[in-house]
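Design job #97: recover the sequence.
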């Protein structure tokens, strides 16, 4: 169980209010408010409450059972906690206590990666919310909803829950948690309208509330935002001033993220020694036997550091670990997204079934009323049966359409409609296995739009998205039906060309490069020229393992960037570069798009 997650659950409980005799009610309220600040005293009060449980009113007894379940979760006994919480959620007389039990189950299931169960409880939580007037219970429940939606990458919905928290603050709460969830959702969604003042305001709220863990979490989001803005020096200062504090909290997930941000900041400043130091520290802080986004990014950063230093063996080792960690993290993230969509479909299907049953009941009632008029009843019966039949067909059509849309979302990039990263990797591995069996050459092309960040900064994200779409369209004109085309992330793309020689791949890459460069757009003040750099690798030299092909193509792409961009590079030899007209570079570099690590 995550410490910050438990802090989020218990934070809303400081305003615990339950009808009861004065002494027992005060003990319950006090126990709820000091669970994490004075845990020894909490356990003493819990024991005292158990001694008097035979005389507690029913509402207070359910509240005591909830505190017992919370303590079981705090001790790491999730199984015992969930068993108790299910009973409380079904049978407790107080809607507020039932809501707290559902919120704690959302927390437990979310942090143990049992996403489908987490979203089932979240759905029950949202249905119960309108019945609960206890602001403390509502605040805690909304916080758990926002946190789970952030983890599953549904930032818009998370933002709505965070705003509800801010609009309904309980007595004694200043909105620290709500502000943290709101900023986290905005940072992860790439919102460009944030300012450092908003982060500092949230940090001040958390420090005023003595919530140091959440204050540190907001500082991390502030540092991530500064890195997005290219302000690495400021980001490093924000984190290093409080680095020792973060380590003293002994909350591994927060420590790991802080160290990753420090590593990324120093890498941006080309301080490779410190970047390596903090990347390794971030990996050491990872929870054992789990995959996470910081773990994947730390391995990728180490690969780039060693590659930049020319340490090929070390770079290869870290690239293998990065591929494994990235695949594990993507699988976990996909599981969360699948669970969200699955539960959403199930809820809709249940509503449709209820609608059908209601219509059938209406039909039966109408039949009873019209028994005296046989002809009219017969006609009405036929019409009603047709209505039910049409409703059933429409319901089946909607379910099928949802399934097809769900499958498309799992395999296609939502912006460009080409292969998603994971789908491209899976299909490319199949192609390479088949090519290896028949000893036929295949080539991998990595392409990266040049200076893409400048386009986003100068013309905005709308123009940036249009640049990506136009570049994809230019590529597709020169691809065969058998070629695989995927977006690896950001502005980096990959093309797998089966049954293709190295010479042919380089020629086709050059044609694609020229097509992209011949696709200008108009920005706010001047036209935007798109160019791209290409790295080509072939199975003739790299073998039929995707990992080695990716490394060789990535190295070729890196040399294309170093060689002036807007060119094609094949293999490991310096003279294997096929460049565009060098004279065009100077006039196009300023307004051209590029991808993160190669820029």
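Job complete. Output follows.
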């Amino acid at each position: 169980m995550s410490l910050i997650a438990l802090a989020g659950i218990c934070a809303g409980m400081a305003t615990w209010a339950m009808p009861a005799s004065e002494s027992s009610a005060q003990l319950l309220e006090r126990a709820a408010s000091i669970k994490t600040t004075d845990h020894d005293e909490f356990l003493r009060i819990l024991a005292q409450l158990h001694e008097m449980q035979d005389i507690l009113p029913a509402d207070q007894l359910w509240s005591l059972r909830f505190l017992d379940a919370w303590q079981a979760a705090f001790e790491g006994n999730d199984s015992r906690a969930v068993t108790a919480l299910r009973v409380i959620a079904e049978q407790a007389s107080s809607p507020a206590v039932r809501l707290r039990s559902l919120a704690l189950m959302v927390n437990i299931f979310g942090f143990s990666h049992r996403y489908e169960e987490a979203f089932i409880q979240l759905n029950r939580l949202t249905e119960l919310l309108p019945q609960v007037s206890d602001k403390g219970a509502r605040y805690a429940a909304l916080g758990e909803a926002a946190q789970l939606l952030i983890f599953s990458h549904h930032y818009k919905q998370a933002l709505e829950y965070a705003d509800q928290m801010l609009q309904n603050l309980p007595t004694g709460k200043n909105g620290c948690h709500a502000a943290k969830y709101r900023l986290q959702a905005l940072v992860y969604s790439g919102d460009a309208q944030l300012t450092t003042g908003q982060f500092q305001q949230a940090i001040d709220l958390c420090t005023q509330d003595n919530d140091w863990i959440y204050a540190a979490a907001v500082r991390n989001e502030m540092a991530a935002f500064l890195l997005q803005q290219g302000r690495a020096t400021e980001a490093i200062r924000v984190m290093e001033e409080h680095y020792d504090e973060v380590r003293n909290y002994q909350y591994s997930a927060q420590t790991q993220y802080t160290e990753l941000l420090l590593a990324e900041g120093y890498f941006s400043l080309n301080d490779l020694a410190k970047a390596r130091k903090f990347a390794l520290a971030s990996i050491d802080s990872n929870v054992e036997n789990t995959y996470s986004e910081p773990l994947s990014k730390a391995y990728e950063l180490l690969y780039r550091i060693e590659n930049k230093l020319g340490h090929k063996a070390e770079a290869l080792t870290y690239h293998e670990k990065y591929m494994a960690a990235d695949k594990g993290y993507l699988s976990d993230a996909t599981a969360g997204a699948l669970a969200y969509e699955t539960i959403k479909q199930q809820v809709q299907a249940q509503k449709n079934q209820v609608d059908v049953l209601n219509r059938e009941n209406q039909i039966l009632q109408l039949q009873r009323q019209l028994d005296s008029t046989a002809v009219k009843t017969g006609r009405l019966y036929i019409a009603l049966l047709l209505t039910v039949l049409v409703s059933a067909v429409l319901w089946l059509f909607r379910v099928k359409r949802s399934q097809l849309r769900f499958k498309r979302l799992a395999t296609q990039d939502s912006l460009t409609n080409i292969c998603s990263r994971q789908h491209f990797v899976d299909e490319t591995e199949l192609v390479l296995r088949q090519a290896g069996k028949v000893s036929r050459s295949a080539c991998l092309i990595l392409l990266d739009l040049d200076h893409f960040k400048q386009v986003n900064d100068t013309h905005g994200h709308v123009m940036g998205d249009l640049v990506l779409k136009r570049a994809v369209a230019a590529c597709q004109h020169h691809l065969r039906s058998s070629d695989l085309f995927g977006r690896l992330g950001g502005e980096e793309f990959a093309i797998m060309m089966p049954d293709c020689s190295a010479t042919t791949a380089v020629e086709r890459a050059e044609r694609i490069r020229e097509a992209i460069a011949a696709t200008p757009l108009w920005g706010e003040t001047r036209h935007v020229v798109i160019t791209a750099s290409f790295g080509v690798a072939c199975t003739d030299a790299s073998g039929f393992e995707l990992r080695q092909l990716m490394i060789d193509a990535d190295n070729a792409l890196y040399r294309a960037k170093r060689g002036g961009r807007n060119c094609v590079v094949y293999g490991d030899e310096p003279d294997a570069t096929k460049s565009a007209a060098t004279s065009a570079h100077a006039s196009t570099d300023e307004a051209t798009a590029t991808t993160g690590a190669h820029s």
